[in-house]
Amino acid sequence: MTSVSQTRSSIPRVVVLLVPGLRACDLPLMPSLTRLISRGGDAFDFHPSLPALTCPVQAAISTGTLGSVHGIVANGVYDRGLQKLEMWTAPDTAIQSPRLWDHIKSARPEVRTAAWFLLESKGATADLVCMPAPVHNPDGSETPWCHSRPTPLYGPLREKLGDFPLHKFWGPLAGIESSQWIARSFIEASRTDPPHLSMVYLPHLDYASQRQGPDSQAALSACAELDGVIHLLTDEFDVMTDGMTTYLVIGEYQIVPVSHTIHPNRILRDAGLLHVTQGPNGELLDMPGSEAWALADHQVSHIFLRDPTDLRCHKKVVALFQGREGVAAVLEGSAIDRAGLRHARAGDVLVVSSSESWQSYFYWLDDALAPKFARTVDIHRKPGYDPLELFFDRAAGGIPLNPALVRGSHGAVSLDAPKPGLFLSSKPIAFQSAHSTSDGKQRIIRDIDVAGIISNLYEIPSPNNC
Question: Which of 20, 64, 242, 398 has the fewest CB atoms lying closer than 10 Å?
């Protein structure tokens, strides 16, 4: 008779490292990562779905579905009924497809899983979960904290490692310390009973590439810094698991150099479609009162119409952006369907940047009227993503309002000139896909392929027949 411990020891162990911004040309700077694939593994181009942004790509990876199914079409979720936007706060329940750990557990309950710092994992049912969840105090201050599963888990991690350095995870001081804490805390949480499937988010390459550009010296130095973190994590986990772990490393998207900015909300405002309210803390975007407004997110904007059936407004919005400098595509109708983004949370019109351009959420026409939160790190109140939060304006004593500072971005996906991320495996993997080279060898992995690849390692069917 096979014991539970014998059964669990025979289960494959897989660690998935999610590394945004990782490129094939970075590997010579990352000897520890290169050694992982020298064990007999391989490297593939990784193609994210549109938009190539953190939350949508992680949702596609962890469900095997497109945005039209899992529902995460941006880094924010706009509820049309409530006319309310939530940026970076959506819980696990916002994802409308089963997550990979649930899919595997349903077939093999003995498999132990971890979702470590994945976005939109608050409330996830993996055995081990940790993600930032600072306590917002009435006076406006924040108390460092993390949501964890089991709930008491963060306590001993905090005692061992100190509080998670949230200011090093995002903001002007963002740096290697956050990825170091994530890796070390994952190891500490795994010591007593290492999970069989782990997904770990290491964001460090995001920072310098957006500040100074993906080919800057700072960005190249960041590769070496992160390689040290990967060395620590894989060495420690190998000791715990007798070196029997398969590592999958996924560069979620590639960050590209940018030198141009589009301001969709200002364009809509100039056209009389977007309106603001005046207050003591500056102008605020009036979503209910606007005929159209844009959720600007890196290189993609979702434009929401107050009345989606208003063809006049729809045509006017499309005409405003078609052919404009910095715009590669304006998606509407069937084009949104083909992109796999037909969902109630998606915009009525999508604006996709050309490679060298990114899109700002700015809606005011005079910086003197900018809302107070514009000069702060406030990821929840801004109606879009703000990479300027990676900078600090000493003269103003806050976040600058100069979009020309931003040197790298991502999100746009071009079928004609793709900028793929990278997929590395420490051991050979087998899967079926339509993308192969002339010799029949698979060289492209899509984000929606990953859940099936991992399921195959546990000898269970792919989720959602992806």
Answer: 242
